[in-house]
C-alpha cells in the first residue's frame, strides 16, 4: 500500500517518460513480490485485468504513469482564470500553435521546435501511447486545427490563412455541415469571408479532401478523446483515467478453452464474465475469493502437470483405481475419493437449504448458478459452501481420501 502512492508521486512530478525496460523491471519486481520469488502461475497482465475479465485489478504502473501525465493535457483543454502559471510558459514555447490543439495534431509534430520542450513532449508521448492502448484512432477529426497543422500543407508548408482565423475559422468542424464540406456561399454568409478568397477556399478544400475521405468520414473524435474530455473536475481524476485504460481490455483472461473442452461448454463471453463476478460477490472474505479465483485459473499442480515437467514417471492418478490421467478436471472432480466427497457435500447442502443441489462440475467448480432453481437468498451461502469444500480438497491434495465433512 505504500509503494504505489510513492511511485504515483514521482509520476506526477517528473516530466520524463520512463523507458520500456524500466517498466519491465518494475513489473518483474512486482511479480517476484506477488509470488514470493517463485515461478508465477498467473501472468501479471492477467492479474492487472479487471475482475469481470478474469483479473484481480492489480496496479498497472504504465496505466498510472499515463493517467498522471494526461491530467496536464486536460489543463491544456480546460483553461480558465485559475489555470496554473506553467500553462503560459508551455504556450510561449508553442508560439502560434495553441496548447489545446496539440492533442489533435499528427505525430509528425515531433519535428517542431516546441516538441523539444520536455514537459510538452512527455505529455504528448503519453497521449499517443494511451491511444495505442485503447485502440483509438489519431486520424483528423472535427477538433483538428486547420492552421499550422502538418497534415494540411500548401507548397510543403502547413497552411495558414490569417484572415480566416480572425473570422473564427480555426478547426475542421467550422468547415463541415452534416458531414459535408460547406459551400463557398455558406462560408461567406456564416463567417463573412470575402468573395475574393474563392481561390483560398478551393485550395483548402482540395488539401483537406486529399487527407480525409469526406464521403465516408464523420470526423468523429477518438474514443479516448470523447471519454477523457468528459472529465471536467479534478476530483479522482487519476482514478477516472486509469479506469478508462483498464476497461479498454475486453478479452477474458481465463483458461476458458480448457474448461469448455472438459465440461462440453459452448463459448459464451457473458457466461465467463458472470462466473468472474460471482467470485467477488459471494463474500467479502478474500481468502475464499482467492480459493475460487485459483480454481477458475487452474493453477494447482496435478500429477499430469508434474509428469509433463519431468518430475514424476507417470501421469496416471495414484489416488484412485480408474487408471485415468490426473488432469485438472480429474483431480478436482472425477477422482473417486473427490467425487464421493462432492456427492456428500451436495447431498448435505440439499438437506440444509431445502432444495436439490446437483453434483455438477459447472456448479461445484465454476460456481455456475444458471441451471439450478433456488431462492436468491441461498445463492451466496451455496457458493461459499462450495468454495469451502474446494478448500478441503486442496488441503488434502496429496491424500484425497482424507476429504470429508466434519
TrEMBL record:
Protein name: Reverse transcriptase zinc-binding domain-containing protein
Source species of the chain: Sphaeramia orbicularis
Amino acid at each position: 500500500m505504500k509503494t504505489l502512492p510513492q511511485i504515483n508521486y514521482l509520476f506526477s512530478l517528473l516530466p520524463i517518460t520512463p523507458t520500456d525496460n524500466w517498466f519491465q523491471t518494475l513489473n518483474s519486481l512486482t511479480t517476484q513480490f506477488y509470488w514470493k520469488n517463485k515461478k508465477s502461475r498467473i501472468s501479471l497482465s492477467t492479474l492487472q485485468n479487471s475482475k469481470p475479465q478474469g483479473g484481480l485489478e492489480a496496479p498497472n504502473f504504465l496505466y498510472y504513469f499515463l493517467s498522471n501525465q494526461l491530467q496536464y493535457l486536460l489543463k491544456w483543454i480546460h483553461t480558465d482564470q485559475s489555470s496554473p502559471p506553467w500553462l503560459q510558459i508551455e504556450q510561449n514555447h508553442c508560439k502560434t500553435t495553441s496548447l489545446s490543439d496539440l492533442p489533435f495534431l499528427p505525430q509528425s509534430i515531433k519535428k517542431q521546435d516546441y516538441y523539444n520542450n520536455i514537459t510538452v513532449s512527455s505529455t504528448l508521448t503519453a497521449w499517443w501511447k494511451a491511444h495505442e492502448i485503447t485502440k483509438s484512432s489519431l486520424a483528423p477529426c472535427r477538433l483538428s486545427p486547420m492552421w499550422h497543422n502538418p497534415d494540411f500543407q500548401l507548397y510543403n508548408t502547413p497552411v495558414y490563412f490569417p484572415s480566416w482565423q480572425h473570422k473564427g475559422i480555426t478547426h475542421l468542424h467550422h468547415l463541415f455541415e452534416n458531414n459535408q464540406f460547406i459551400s463557398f456561399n455558406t462560408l461567406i454568409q456564416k463567417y463573412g469571408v470575402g468573395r475574393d478568397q474563392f481561390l483560398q477556399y478551393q485550395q483548402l478544400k482540395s488539401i483537406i479532401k486529399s487527407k480525409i475521405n469526406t464521403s465516408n468520414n464523420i470526423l468523429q473524435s477518438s474514443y479516448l478523446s470523447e471519454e477523457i474530455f468528459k472529465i471536467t473536475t479534478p476530483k479522482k481524476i487519476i482514478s477516472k483515467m486509469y479506469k478508462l485504460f483498464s476497461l479498454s481490455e475486453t478479452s477474458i483472461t481465463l483458461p476458458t478453452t480448457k474448461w469448455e473442452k472438459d465440461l462440453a461448454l459452448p463459448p459464451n463471453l457473458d457466461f465467463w464474465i458472470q462466473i468472474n463476478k460471482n467470485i467477488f460477490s459471494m463474500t467479502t472474505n478474500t481468502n475464499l475469493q482467492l480459493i475460487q479465483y485459483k480454481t477458475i485459473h487452474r493453477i494447482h499442480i496435478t500429477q499430469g502437470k508434474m509428469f509433463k515437467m519431468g518430475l514424476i514417471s507417470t501421469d496416471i492418478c495414484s489416488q484412485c483405481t480408474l487408471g485415468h490421467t490426473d488432469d485438472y478436471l480429474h483431480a478436482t472432480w472425477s477422482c473417486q475419493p473427490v467425487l464421493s466427497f462432492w456427492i456428500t457435500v451436495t447431498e448435505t447442502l440439499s438437506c440444509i437449504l431445502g432444495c436439490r443441489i446437483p453434483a455438477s462440475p459447472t456448479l461445484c467448480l465454476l460456481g455456475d448458478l444458471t441451471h439450478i432453481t433456488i431462492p436468491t437468498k441461498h445463492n451466496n451461502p451455496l457458493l461459499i459452501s462450495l468454495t469451502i469444500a474446494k478448500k478441503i480438497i486442496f488441503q488434502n491434495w496429496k491424500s484425497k481420501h482424507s476429504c470429508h465433512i466434519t
